[in-house]
Design brief:
The chain is an alpha+beta fold. 15% of the residues lie in helices and 31% in strands. The chain has 2 domains: 152 residues, Elongation Factor Tu (Ef-tu), domain 3; 53 residues, Membrane-bound Lytic Murein Transglycosylase D, Chain A, CATH 3.10.350. The strands form 3 sheets. Strands 2-1-7-8-9-6-3 form a 7-stranded antiparallel sheet. Strands 4-5 form a two-stranded antiparallel ribbon. α3 packs across α4. It is elongated. It starts with 13 loop residues before the first strand and ends in a 6-residue tail after the last strand.
Length: 232
């Protein structure tokens, strides 16, 4: 588990909240930052693919057509304890009430945004950008007056892609955007064209756009422009 750094110091999981998916440090809602009392013992990471079922009449098995890869999701269980048993977690008259209230705020609407906050988890190499999708709290110990002193919180998170990064990746192969690429060694124009447009048939248009006389012999290290495709 990623608890111990090379110098032997304990690195505790931090949950940081932001109003937008860019999660810029200067927009962090620091009043919602949560440092766990005890690092989780387990971390369950789920991967999945979503298919569309093509139903066939009769007894013939239906066909599953790929639709998309589901975003990663992961579950962790957090411990809250104000009995004095955990170093650094001082006892409190209100027990763990304030700690649980802070955690629940990660599911509440964020002011003018009218939606819950975006989160960054800082702990080892596990997924960082996510949102809290489900929260189950189990209270385990109480004071005589009913004040909760100890609880576990099962948190389910769903990973999301940074908006700018997602758009950048989408544009990398968009036929509606001009691309500039460096020619690698021993590659031919039809193949390079197919990597951009998904089809090699546009290689003559690329050759014309770049003023290539001999497109069968490309200069390694030179740059090629791949213009937007004409529609119609």
């Amino acid at each position: 588990m990623p608890d111990i750094e090379s110098k032997g110091t304990l690195e505790k999981l931090q949950i940081r909240a932001f109003p937008d998916p860019e999660c810029n440090d200067d927009t962090e809602k620091k009043d919602l930052r949560l440092t766990v009392m005890v690092n989780p013992e387990t971390f369950t990471l789920s991967h999945g693919v979503e298919y569309v079922e093509q139903i066939t009449p009769g007894d013939v098995p239906s066909t599953l057509t790929y639709y998309r890869h589901k975003p990663k999701s992961f579950d962790i269980e957090l411990v809250f304890d104000r009995t004095g048993a955990i170093p650094g977690a001082l006892p409190s008259e209100k027990g763990i009430t304030a700690d649980i209230d802070k955690l629940k705020k990660l599911l509440e609407f964020d002011g003018d945004k009218h939606q819950p906050v975006y989160l960054k988890l800082t702990w080892g190499t596990f997924p960082s950008a996510c949102r809290l999708s489900d929260l189950q709290i189990t209270y385990k110990l109480f004071k005589p007056d009913g004040t909760p002193l100890r609880a576990t919180a099962r948190c389910s998170f769903t990973e999301f892609a940074d908006v700018k990064l997602k758009e950048s990746k989408k544009n990398e192969k968009s036929p509606d955007v001009t691309h500039v690429r460096t020619v690698p060694e021993d590659e031919h124009l039809p193949y390079l064209t197919s990597k951009i447009y998904g089809d090699s048939k546009y290689y003559l248009a690329v050759a014309k756009a770049n003023g290539l006389v001999n497109f069968r012999k490309l200069e390694t290290g030179s740059s090629l422009q791949y213009p937007p495709l004409e529609k119609g």
